[in-house]
Specification:
With 369 residues, this protein is an alpha/beta fold. It is 41% helix and 16% strand. 37% of the residues are buried.
C-alpha cells in the first residue's frame, strides 16, 4: 500500500507542480527546510539514546503548537526527567513558534512529507515509543509505518469539522484502514467522536476530553504586561486612545477594517500568514510596521498615526493584551481558507471580542462562549 500511495503522491505533485512552484515562489516558502521535509532530521546532542521513553507530539502549525502548551507543561512536570519529548511541526511558522516555546525543554523537529522513505528516515532518527497527533494529521504512510514498528499512534485534542468530514467521507474506502489503526482518539466533542467513528476508528478507542485550549486560558487582564508595554512603546501606540487589534486576518479583511475603523481609534493589524505582510503594509500610507521598530526601540506617539502592522510571529497575545476591542479574523468575508480563527486568547485576557459569521472551524468554541 505504501508504494501505491507514493505513486499517487508523486503523480499529484507532478500534475500540480506549476501551481505549487508559483505559490512557493510568490509566498517565499521555497526557502524552507527541504531536507527535514524529506525526513532528514538534523542531529542533536539530545538524540542520544539514554534509555528514556520518547513521546512524539505532532502539531502542524501555530494554532496546534499553542494548544499543546499546557499539555507539554503537565507532561514534563509529571514525568520529572524520565521522558524524552519531541515536538514536530509542518509549517515554518509552526516550527518557529514551537522553538520559541519548547526548545529549552524538548527537541523540535520538522515533520516529513508522507512518502514511505521520508517517513522511515524520520522514525529512524526520532525513535518514538508513542506518537500523539494534535487535532488530526492522520497521514496513512506515517500511521502504517508506526504500526509496523509497534509504535502506538493516536490523536489528542481531536477535531473534525463538518466541512472537513464531508471531504474525508468521500474517500472513506481509502482512509478508513488508517483511522482503524489509531490506538486512541481523544476528541473534543461528541460530534467529533461520531465523525471519527464514521471514518473507521473503533468506538472503544475514542474518548471525549473537551478542548485543550481551555487548559491554556488565563483569565487575567495583565498577562504579559512587560511584553505588551514594550510592543506599545516600540510602535508608538497611544495608550490614551482606543486600540482595536485585528488578529489572524485574511485577504480582504484588512481593507475592510481600515475603512471601518473610527477616526478616533487606532488599529493594529495582525495578518494570519507572514507572506501577506508586505501586501498589507501597502494598503495604508504611513502604516507603522513592527519589523521597523524592533524590541527595545522607542517611537514617539504621533496623533496622526492610525494604523499599525504586527509583522512578526509570536506576539499576537501581547497585542491582544493591549486591546480595548479584539477582532478575530478570517471570519468576516468567508471564502477559501476563511473559516474563522481561535477567539480564546483575547477572551481569556478579558478583552471585548468580536468574531464574524464565518467561523466554521471554531463553531464549538464560539457556541460554548
Amino acid at each position: 500500500m505504501g508504494f501505491g500511495r507514493d505513486i499517487a503522491y508523486a503523480s499529484a505533485a507532478a500534475a500540480l507542480s506549476p501551481l505549487l512552484a508559483w505559490r512557493l515562489w510568490r509566498t517565499g516558502k521555497w526557502r524552507t527546510d527541504w531536507p527535514g521535509r524529506f525526513g532528514r532530521v538534523r542531529t542533536d546532542a539530545r538524540d542520544a539514546d539514554d534509555g528514556r521513553p520518547t513521546l512524539l507530539l505532532h502539531a502542524v502549525s501555530v494554532g496546534e503548537v499553542n494548544a499543546i502548551r499546557g499539555l507539554v507543561d503537565q507532561l514534563l512536570a509529571s514525568s520529572g526527567d524520565n521522558l524524552r519529548l519531541v515536538v514536530s511541526t509542518t509549517t515554518d511558522t509552526g516550527f518557529a513558534r514551537a522553538r520559541a516555546l519548547f526548545a529549552d525543554r524538548a527537541r523540535v523537529v520538522r515533520f516529513p512529507f508522507d512518502f514511505t522513505a521520508a517517513v522511515h528516515r524520520f522514525l529512524d532518527a526520532v525513535r518514538p515509543d508513542l506518537v500523539a497527533l494534535v487535532e488530526l494529521e492522520v497521514w496513512p504512510n506515517f500511521v502504517e509505518a508506526c504500526v509496523k514498528r509497534g509504535i502506538p499512534v493516536g490523536v489528542v485534542n481531536g477535531r473534525l469539522s463538518a466541512r472537513s468530514f464531508k471531504g474525508y467521507r468521500r474517500f472513506r474506502p481509502f482512509i478508513a484502514p488508517t483511522f482503524d489503526k489509531l490506538s486512541f482518539a481523544a476528541v473534543q466533542t461528541q460530534s467529533y467522536a461520531e465523525r471519527f467513528e464514521a471514518l473507521g476508528t473503533p468506538a472503544d478507542r475514542i474518548l471525549i476530553t473537551d478542548s485543550m485550549k481551555w487548559d491554556n486560558a488565563r483569565i487575567e487582564r495583565k498577562v504579559n504586561v512587560r511584553a505588551a508595554g514594550e510592543l506599545a512603546t516600540a510602535l508608538g501606540i497611544d495608550r490614551n486612545r482606543p486600540l482595536i487589534v485585528a488578529g489572524s486576518t485574511g485577504p480582504g479583511e484588512e481593507r475592510l477594517l481600515i475603512d471601518a475603523c473610527p477616526a478616533e481609534a487606532q488599529l493594529l493589524l495582525v495578518p494570519r500568514k507572514p507572506e501577506r505582510f508586505d501586501e498589507v503594509a501597502r494598503l495604508e500610507p504611513g502604516i507603522v510596521r513592527r519589523t521597523g521598530h524592533p524590541a527595545g526601540s522607542v517611537r514617539p506617539v504621533d496623533p496622526a498615526t492610525r494604523v499599525f502592522l504586527l509583522d512578526t510571529i509570536g506576539e499576537l497575545r501581547s497585542a491582544y493584551a493591549l486591546a480595548d476591542v479584539a477582532l478575530v479574523g478570517r471570519s468576516f468575508l468567508g471564502g477559501a481558507g476563511m473559516h474563522g480563527s481561535d477567539p480564546l486568547d483575547p477572551i481569556s485576557l478579558g478583552v471585548a471580542t468580536l468574531i464574524g459569521p464565518h467561523h466554521d472551524d471554531f463553531t464549538d468554541l464560539v457556541e460554548a462562549l
